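Give me the fold.
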Amino acid sequence: MTKLEKLKKILSNMESVLFAYSGGVDSTLLLKMAKDTLGERVLAVTADSLTYPSSEFKAAKEMTERLKVGHIIIKTKELSDPNFFYNPLNRCYWCKKELFSQLSTIAKKNGMNYILDGTNYDDRRDFRPGRRAAREFGVRSPLAEARLTKREIRQLSKELDLSTWDKPAFACLASRFPYGTKITRENLKKIDEAERFLCGLGIKGSLRVRHHGSIARIEVPKENLSKLLKLRDKIASKFKELGYTYVTLDLEGYRTGSMNEPVRRRRNII
């Protein structure tokens, strides 16, 4: 049995599903396969939150319309929770707990058997406190259960003609803050605008603007470092307009979960 066949079997056995849809590569493949397997017994939910990039919110709505999947928009209140606002190491747990709590209510109201998320098999390698919340609410991760990796998900998405197949990876904007730094509405908006500005300059691939108080640390794929340097005056001017005093370029380039590097180092020491 191929991994794709295993995924279809997992979904078929669930009979009806509701899941957190972000519009990203992983969740879009899951949405497509759930729709193909379960038909109308699929409901997608997207959270309208300042922690969610505005461009991704728009893309999520467009994809659900294209695939003809029922779509509900909810408002999440993680920014009003001190457990999230003060950005502790388990910040993601509190965010996911807020999300899955709402999804649980919606699933029961609509008679859906399972709540799903788009976690893939590679995600198990990173520091992800949100997985605890998923376990508490009985959330299933079919992509991970089928052992589908990010590379395989992109390949399958390409074969299925999904526009997201080569979409850059993205994450909640709260991941741009070092742990212990307060997550504010103002700074979330600042980061969102800064990243949209870089995208508008034609920077390809995944990028991040990491927020270190008055310092903006930009991460882009290494092949884009030279291009960014050529645009340094324009970028510096825009970022200072947004309120940053210093604008830096990370010479290591983009890598997922860079804010977790201090956590991993401490664990290795311990």
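Residues 31 and 222 are 32 Å apart (CA to CA).
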